[in-house]
Automatic annotation (TrEMBL):
Name the record gives this protein: L-threonine 3-dehydrogenase
InterPro entries, sorted: Epimerase_deHydtase, NAD(P)-bd_dom_sf, NAD(P)_epim/dehydratase
Residue intervals of the NAD-dependent epimerase/dehydratase domain: 2-249
Similarity comment: family membership: Belongs to the NAD(P)-dependent epimerase/dehydratase family.
GO MF assignments: L-threonine 3-dehydrogenase activity
Organism superkingdom: Eukaryota
Length: 330
């Protein structure tokens, strides 16, 4: 049985149907801090086991793993970079204590599969946010000083250290990917790379868009479909192929002005303005690009979507969604 935490978040919502297909419709349990509000329920949640689970509640996490005989945990519950700077202590509770509760439950409960009692395996995303201002910013490699300057980055670095500890000390199968900005049509969740989604949404509605980062701030990105495929490929990769538990992963890098140029290919009359806010400092502390050659070497990672593919795909999805909403409220 697979337990997904943060199942109603930006990644969780798109990941659920893929996990159900891979592991079996009734073997995947969606959990989140609160059941989805009407606006968040998507068709994939019909007849699906859905539970409310606060990963900060150690007892509740243990009970869920024990009750549902969980053998695999996809731990997506997190507070992202921008919201984490507004609520740093809460971000530390969710991202660090929550992860420790997940790892402890996996270690302690041990569920019998094929006759032997085994710890649940754990996949938990990390982020390029673990790199800080003192890290080389171009082609940042996997093995480099991580001195993050945001609570989100600090907490994701701690997640990695905890995962490696549980792997080395207890043999727990922990796997993680340092995701770049992940782009999809679904609502962003308070990240710094969400400026791209704002530009797409505004360009479509108003033929003008505003970026909350300066036009030349370069960051690594990937499409949600590449993000989810990379997670599945790592989750199913044979253990003997892995040279590490945490991998850098990316598709391409882009700046707000390159995002604007990409949008103009599909909405020629769009205008852009750049109004940096508190998230500029967060973005400046992150790499311009990362080196994901270990992922490409160890388990054959190849990205499929570049910037223009993503711009076209997301603008089409947003336009279709607007059309459907207009019909619904006519
Ligand atoms: C954020 N989208 O902006 C997330 C991600 C690298 C960025 O971690 O916080």
């Amino acid at each position: 049985v697979v337990l997904v935490t943060g199942a109603y978040g930006q990644i969780g919502r798109d990941f659920m149907p893929i996990l159900r297909q891979l592991f079996g419709e009734s073997n995947v349990i969606a959990s989140d801090i609160a059941k989805p509000t009407a606006s968040k329920v998507v068709e994939t949640y019909d007849n699906l086991k859905t539970i409310e689970l606060d990963v900060c509640d150690k007892g509740a996490v243990r009970d869920a793993v024990k009750t549902f005989k969980v053998t695999r945990i996809v731990h997506l519950a997190t507070m992202l970079s921008a919201v984490g700077e507004k609520l740093p202590i809460k971000a530390h509770d969710v991202n660090v204590q929550g992860t420790l509760n997940i790892l402890e439950a996996a270690r302690e409960i041990k569920v019998s599969t094929n006759g032997s009692k085994k710890m649940a395996s754990v996949f938990a995303p990390s982020s390029i946010a673990v790199f800080g201002p003192s890290t080389p910013q171009d082609g940042t490699p996997d093995d480099v000083v991580c001195a993050p300057s945001t609570m989100y980055g600090i907490s994701k670095h701690h997640l990695e250290l905890l995962g490696n500890y549980y792997h080395q000390r207890y043999g727990l199968d922990f796997r993680s990917l340092r995701f770049p900005g992940v782009l999809s049509a679904s609502d962003p969740g308070g990240g710094t790379t969400d400026y791209v989604m704002d530009m797409y949404n505004e360009a479509l509605k108003y033929k003008q868009c505003t970026s909350f980062l300066s036009e030349d701030i370069e960051l690594p990105f990937m499409h949600m479909e590449d993000c989810l495929r990379s997670a599945i490929e790592l989750i199913v990769a044979p253990n003997n192929k892995l040279t590490r538990r945490v991998y850098n992963i990316t598709a391409f890098s882009a700046t707000p002005s390159q995002v604007y140029e990409s949008i103009k290919k599909f909405i020629p009359e769009v205008q852009a303005q750049y109004e940096p806010d508190f998230r500029e400092e967060i973005a400046l502390s992150w790499p311009n690009s990362v080196d994901d050659s270990f992922a490409r070497r160890d388990w054959g990672w190849q990205h499929a979507y570049d910037l223009d593919d993503i711009t076209k795909d997301i603008l089409d999805s947003l336009a279709a969604e607007r059309m459907a909403n207009m019909k619904r409220f006519r």
